[in-house]
Known about the structure:
6 strands; 6-stranded mixed β-sheet; ph1033 like fold; alpha+beta; about 25% helix; about 140 residues; 5 helices
Amino acid sequence: MISYWLLKSEPSTWSWDDQEKAGTDMWDGVRNYQARNNLMKMKKKDLCFFYHSVSEKMIIGIVEVVKEHYPDPTDKTGRFVVTDVKAKKKLKRSVSLEEIKSSPKLSNIPLIKQSRLSVMPLSKTEWETIIKISEK
Length: 136
């Protein structure tokens, strides 16, 4: 069974364009234990929204998990992990944080409840709702 996630990145650090150019790359740099635990729950074929945080605050595209968690080579403590993700597709239209906040079906997603969390789970209904918004 596929699970759904949202991955946040500052576009100045790693943008959707960077991900598209790379194709497949590791999702590294996570230094929050809850986000790390979410990375550890990800399985191959899971789908993730790629969210530009900070200045843009919008979902840009979709990536697929292609390799499950392994030690983050950028972490000298050995406590954190990465997963490899592959760019699947850019959304027809980006979905802003304001649109997400204004949808009653999305009122409980971690993006609103825990705005600092960089890796978060989504329900299938939340995923489908965001896809529908992106197609309007």
